[in-house]
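Milestone 3.1: sequence recovery, worked example.
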């Protein structure tokens, strides 16, 4: 259970301990303060006393926890935690904070960003792209991020695979959902566990065909043309521990004619990707947001 909480909150063992201490002491302080205040009312123990006491400690609890979080160095965690509870209770639907992982030209990332900006402008959006994660210095997607004023995170192989998979960093930045768009590294288990059903990928073929390790970019289109297939397409799917394997969310198709080459097929696929990926993300996050 503690492991799950650690992953959900993106904290290490020490921070987890400090958070639990804050909860315990904050709760006790709230109980003591509540009783003291009830003493001032002059009421006798009874139904009215209990009802008033419950209301009082519900109101006092956030303040007590915040107060205790200061000496424990957990104020920023608790202010975000309480804001989340408040948003949930008040039915205030905030936008889902998305990180796009991309290492290439970033044409899909750009379409996803543009879509969010337009949808949010008209008040119909459910997500905002707040971070671009990239493993290639100089990748086109970094220039796109700069153009739209989006924060970037250049990741290091060692830390990605042997460290915590950048979970702490992503959680601290408030990232709630991850979209892979041309990201070739396998996603480590630590990240998948920290974001269950909250990481999706787009593959430029109709999975389960032409997927798996080594099947990416032009290699996919070359294999499809070489096989003489009459149809290809895109697959948007959840990410699990295997390459191109998680459950499928959406597939879009296009015909292949005799004149098609790997290059012309790649263009057709890009058109499909740009048309569908942003909308699929929007629909998915609308659904997740309304839960
Ligand atoms: C896309 O074709 C996508 O299917 C694959 O990587 C490519 C990324 O293209 N996963 P771009 O960088 O978004 O232009």
């Amino acid at each position: 259970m503690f492991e799950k909480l650690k992953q959900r909150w993106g904290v290490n063992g020490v921070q987890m301990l400090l958070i639990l201490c804050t909860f315990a002491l904050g709760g006790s302080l709230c109980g003591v303060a509540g009783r003291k205040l009830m003493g001032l009312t002059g009421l006798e123990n009874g139904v009215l006393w209990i009802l008033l006491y419950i209301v009082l400690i519900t109101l006092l609890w956030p303040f007590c926890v915040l107060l205790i979080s200061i000496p424990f160095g957990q104020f920023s965690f608790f202010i975000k935690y309480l804001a989340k509870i408040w948003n949930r209770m008040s039915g205030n639907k905030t936008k889902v904070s998305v990180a796009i992982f991309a290492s290439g030209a970033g044409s899909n990332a750009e379409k996803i960003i543009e879509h969010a900006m337009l949808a949010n402008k008209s008040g119909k959006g459910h997500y905002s792209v707040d971070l671009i994660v990239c493993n290639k210095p100089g990748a086109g997607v970094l220039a796109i991020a700069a153009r739209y004023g989006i924060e970037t995170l250049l990741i290091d192989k060692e830390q990605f695979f042997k460290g915590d998979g950048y979970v702490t960093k992503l959680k601290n930045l408030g990232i709630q959902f991850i979209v892979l768009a041309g990201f070739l590294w396998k996603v480590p288990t630590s990240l998948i566990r920290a974001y269950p059903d909250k990481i999706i990928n787009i593959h430029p073929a109709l999975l389960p065909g032409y997927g798996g390790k080594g099947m990416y970019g032009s290699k996919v289109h070359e294999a499809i043309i070489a096989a003489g297939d009459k149809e290809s397409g895109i697959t948007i799917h959840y990410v699990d521990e295997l390459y191109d394997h998680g459950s499928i969310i959406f597939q879009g198709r296009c015909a292949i004619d005799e004149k098609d080459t790997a290059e012309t097929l790649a263009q057709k696929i890009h058109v499909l990707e740009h048309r569908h990926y942003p909308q699929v993300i929007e629909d998915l996050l609308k659904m997740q947001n309304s839960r």
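The longest helix spans residues 13-41. Strands lie at 96-101, 127-134, 151-154, 177-180, 199-203, 231-238, 248-255.
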